[in-house]
Amino acid sequence: MPRPTLEQVAQRAGVSRATVSRVVNDSPTVAESIRTAVRRAIDELGYVPNQAARSLVTQRTDSYALILPESPSRVFSDDQFFPGIIRGVSQELDSADKQLVLMVAGSQASHDRIERYALARHIDGVLIASMHGADPLPGTLARMGIPVLCGGRPLGQVRVPYVEVDNVNGGRMAVRHLLETGRTRIATIAGPQDMVAGIDRLTGYREELRGSDRRSIVAVGDFTRDSGAVAMRQLLEDDPDLDAVFVASDLMAHGALQALQSAGRRVPDDVAVIGFDDIALARYTEPPLSTVRQPIVGQGREMARQLLRLAAGEDIADSVILPTELVIRGTT
């Protein structure tokens, strides 16, 4: 059947076309009794507003972008962090009757495409998560007048609001737990040092060790399982007597556990292991992985919540820091 028109809704409700348009665009100038009659006519006819035309009137699209500056293979091979962030953002936007637009930006060409898309005002705001280095994208979009909020503290001189977890304190809690269990040669497999999570978790490790007068033993991975295995083998070569390792992600910790098993090291008898994230996998490693829990879905929800307030013209805090929690299992 042909799509109902604005004129047909106006005729059914007994009002003008302009009045129907004001109701559709949520104008506060329409009396409640007329608004009720128009909405009843919309429901009876099954009228669906033309979003493009509505956006011309309201200057809003009710769509918000989540940008992940990673390669598609990295985003879609990760079965924990990215799905958790996406789920949290989607839940919050859905509850506000807003649309999520997911953008993967692993190249300069994709950055340029996103800038053009945002400049054309197809979206009302932007969230950016998993940034590497001093990414210019947040600052570029903010200078365009687009509301921008980051997941994690932006590196460099960019000044946009952000939501992140307390990575430094999480690292400190992990190392403090290892010290309290009597470990003396505590190494770390740090995350990439062009990402704030990798930098801050290493900072927490070093700060806690410094207070105990023990030296740092550091290898660096890229938050993947394979890099954790490679880094663990490197640590064992560099310091065969190490008796504990704090690993900056659970996926890397899983790789480290496999490397320790291959080297004939018993966990936790010979080497204690603690990760970071508390993804589902942590409960099913052998032994189950001690870790630092971060609220991945909660971070996504808080990011979307803050962005919606920013896009509505409300004042928001420059930063929101979410707490982490120590989870003790069999590997320590």
Automatic annotation (TrEMBL):
<dbReference type="GO" id="GO:0000976">
    <property type="term" value="F:transcription cis-regulatory region binding"/>
</dbReference>
<keyword id="KW-0804">Transcription</keyword>
<dbReference type="InterPro" id="IPR000843">
    <property type="entry name" value="HTH_LacI"/>
</dbReference>
<keyword id="KW-0238">DNA-binding</keyword>
<dbReference type="InterPro" id="IPR010982">
    <property type="entry name" value="Lambda_DNA-bd_dom_sf"/>
</dbReference>
<dbReference type="Pfam" id="PF13377">
    <property type="entry name" value="Peripla_BP_3"/>
</dbReference>
<dbReference type="InterPro" id="IPR028082">
    <property type="entry name" value="Peripla_BP_I"/>
</dbReference>
<protein>
    <submittedName>
        <fullName>LacI family transcriptional regulator</fullName>
    </submittedName>
</protein>
<dbReference type="InterPro" id="IPR046335">
    <property type="entry name" value="LacI/GalR-like_sensor"/>
</dbReference>
<dbReference type="GO" id="GO:0003700">
    <property type="term" value="F:DNA-binding transcription factor activity"/>
</dbReference>
<feature type="domain" description="HTH lacI-type">
    <location>
        <begin position="4"/>
        <end position="58"/>
    </location>
</feature>
<dbReference type="Pfam" id="PF00356">
    <property type="entry name" value="LacI"/>
</dbReference>
<keyword id="KW-0805">Transcription regulation</keyword>
